[in-house]
Structures are given as structure tokens and as C-alpha cells.
Amino acid sequence: MLLKGKNRRSSLLANTTRIKCASSYWLLLFVRAEVSDTVDMSRPMYCDRLDIPLPDKPYRDVLTDAEESLKQKEKGPWSQLSREEKIALYRLSFCQTYAEMKKPTGEWKTVIGGIFFFVGFTGLVVWWQRIYVYPPRPRTFDPEWQAMQLQRMLDMRVNPIQGFSAKWDYEKGQWK
User: InterPro entries, per this entry (predicted)?
Assistant: First the structure.
């Protein structure tokens, strides 16, 4: 299907944009990611981070009338503010407290569950291979066969100086 006019040009522009992104970032080489809007880093931004205790701007910029009156009340003595008003003022400036930021996420449970899943799956694959893929064990691994082989080596007096035969007492019929 051939595109004509403006549609063809915009499609070509979109494809070249994807190619430029993919060529400039090797990770995006195989990913069809859309280019997101740029963020003006010169403007103040809000972020909750442990290493940045005071963000550039407050959490809430647009305030209601009640919040505006609370902000005016903030300029006075803090001893006249109730506990709830202090918390509300804090929540106007910050989204989370340090305790909330440090709170564990519980992600370790997902990680441990994933590890157990993959270990279990690997165990099932190994079990399946032992039953259906590998040949049966050779008869030479059986204890009866090994006992017969040992008796044969003793009867042949194999390595009588330092080997099996040196440790076997032929007169008593037992190990020395």
C-alpha cells in the first residue's frame, strides 16, 4: 500500500524518528518505543526522595479556599494550630513522610516467590529428563555387579604390591 502526500511524509518522519532513537540508544534497537514529551528541567519540580529533603516546589500548587486560609493561619504562632491543621499543612507541602518513604514495599515476597517458582520448574525439568530422556543406568552401577567385579579382581590378584590384592588376606579370605 502506497501512502500519498502528507500521510506518506508523516509516516516517513515517524519511521525516521524511531530509527534515530534506536540508533542513538542500543537498548531501543529492538524496542518500538514512542518518544515521550521532554521535561523542562529548568522549572521547579516536586519529587519525594530520601536524599532530597526539600523539593523545589510544594506538593500542592493549586489550593482551595480552606487550604488558603490554613496557609494564612500558618504565618501566625504555631502554638495556636491544632495537630490536624499541622498535618494538613505538612500534606500541602509534602506527599509522603520519611517513615512512609522508608516503609518496605513487600517486593521481597515476589522475588522469593519467583525464585521458588523457577527452582521448582527446574526441578520438574530435571525429573522429566531423568525419566524420559536419559537411558537407564548401566548394570555396572549395581552393587551386585560391583561386588562380582571386586571378587574377580581379587581372584586375578590384580596389582598385588599396592592395589586391592595387597590389602586382601588370601589365607583368611578377608580384608587385612
Answer: Cyt_c_oxidase_su4 (IPR013288), Cyt_c_oxidase_su4_fam (IPR004203), Cyt_c_oxidase_su4_sf (IPR036639)
